[in-house]
Design goal:
Elements: E1 28-30, H1 31-35, H2 40-53, E2 56-60, H3 66-80, H4 84-87, E3 100-102, E4 108-109, E5 112-113, E6 117-121, H5 150-155, H6 159-184, H7 191-196, E7 201-209, E8 220-223, E9 229-234, E10 240-243, E11 250-252, E12 260-264, H8 266-271, E13 281-283, E14 292-300, E15 306-307, H9 353-362, H10 375-379, E16 381-382, H11 383-394, H12 396-402
Helix pairs in contact: 2-6, 3-6, 11-12
């Protein structure tokens, strides 16, 4: 949960509107329930409630073998235990593709220095042969290989295979989850698959939060992830918190064995007009006496994708919006719309102004009225540009070395 929002996050006062509701726990959902036709409707209902309330849930029975998760965790622990001289051989500034190691204090979140070491990976790819940093589209430079220094592989023999196998498994899980998100919105199951294409772009960030004596710093400042979906593996130390978007209440996302934490990013929040939340989250400083390790996986569409500014088909939810205190929605599945039909929807197929206001009021969403589809809405935004802007902001040392001019 650590790709940074493009704006500073102001944490709400926990007393703000605190009488309106209290979320006492983050739900745990089972992927087995989604894969079973009989239990799928209940799974989608609980997922929908979770994403409307806070934007986060735990997923169990996820199909990723224990030996894969344990192998990935051990591999990154072994890597971070290496001498700094060895770890620095794969420093991120060595990679034109924004992959590699960052030392303690080399990154900031929400204007605060992160108290963690980091290691970043992405799909193992060949370099675009036609890419020229000063003339090509910048995001084409994100295609390429990860760093695998031979000295490090000699010291941690299972490092490369464990990381690649883990990313392969999380890509499969993420495809299932994005399909479920689509169905929970009354869209076709393939809606997001068509946006993601045959080569979704994902990033794996491995982080080590060393224990300190005093909690006078922050492990990672409050922020939202910028993309679509984050799947997080954490160890049993704890420290991650998510914020209730209505009350400002901070909720501990306590480690639960054999689960991942699933969180929506700002792209989903934007696409759904705020119906689904991108969770504001932070990592408290680690005073446990032992190191904390976490491995978030950020799953996004292919870099060449154009992403609509919102999903017009959400008009199909208007009959089932409820203003109950739990903000749950009892949805039939009357209407489906694929990504390929976005440009053919007319304005009449969107929610009316009154219906949209009712939906937003019921969910305590207060955005400006923007019901009509503009030409910019239809054209959408470049996912490649969006991803590059995010990584360039987080890793300016890579940009200054390899790209040579300001965006």
């Amino acid at each position: 949960m650590s790709v940074h929002s493009s704006h500073n996050v102001q944490a709400k006062d926990c007393c703000e509107d605190a009488s309106s509701r209290t979320i006492t726990a983050i739900r745990t959902l089972s992927l087995k329930d989604y894969l079973c036709p009989e239990s799928r409707p209940q799974f989608l209902s609980e997922m929908r409630d979770s994403l409307m309330e806070i934007g986060t849930f735990y997923i169990k029975d996820h199909g990723v073998p224990t030996e894969v998760t344990d192998g990935a965790m051990k591999a990154i622990q072994d890597y971070f235990a290496l001498p700094l001289e060895e770890k620095s051989k794969m420093h991120i500034r060595n990679s034109q593709h924004f992959r590699g190691y960052k030392l303690m204090g080399e990154e900031m979140t929400n204007n605060q220095i992160d108290h963690r070491e980091q290691l970043q990976f992405a799909p193992e790819q060949t370099v675009e042969s036609s890419f020229v940093p000063t003339t090509s589209r910048h995001w084409e430079g994100l295609h390429g290989p990860n760093q695998w220094p031979l000295d490090i592989l000699a010291l941690v023999p299972e490092f490369k295979s464990s990381v690649l196998q883990f990313m392969d498994q999380l890509e499969i899980l993420s495809q299932h989850l994005m399909e479920a998100v689509a169905l929970s919105l009354n869209l076709e199951a393939t809606y997001f698959r068509e946006l993601f294409g045959s080569s979704p772009y994902y990033r794996l960030k491995c982080a080590k939060y060393p224990s300190v004596e005093k909690a006078d710093t922050i492990g990672c400042g409050a922020h939202k992830d910028t993309g679509f979906l984050t799947v997080l593996l954490q160890d049993m130390v704890g420290g991650l918190q998510g914020q209730d978007p209505v009350t400002g209440q901070w909720l501990d996302t306590c480690p639960v064995p054999e689960t991942f934490i699933v969180t929506m990013g700002e792209a989903i929040e934007k696409l759904t007009g705020g119906l689904y939340h991108a969770t504001v989250h932070r990592v408290l400083n680690n005073t446990s006496g032992q190191n904390r390790y976490s491995i978030p996986f950020f799953f996004d569409p292919s870099l060449s994708s154009k992403i609509p500014h919102r999903i017009p088909a959400l008009a199909s939810l208007r009959r089932s919006v409820s203003s109950t205190s739990s903000m749950s929605m009892s949805m039939s599945m009357p209407m489906s719309t694929s990504a390929s039909s976005l440009t053919s929807l007319s304005d009449e197929e969107s929610c009316s102004e009154d219906e949209l206001d009712h939906m937003m009021d019921a969910l305590k969403i207060h955005h400006g009225k923007d019901d009509a589809l503009s030409s910019q809405d239809v054209e959408g935004w470049s996912n490649g540009d969006h991803i590059f802007e995010t990584v360039q902001r987080c890793h300016p040392e890579v940009f200054s070395r390899w790209y040579g001019r300001e965006l």
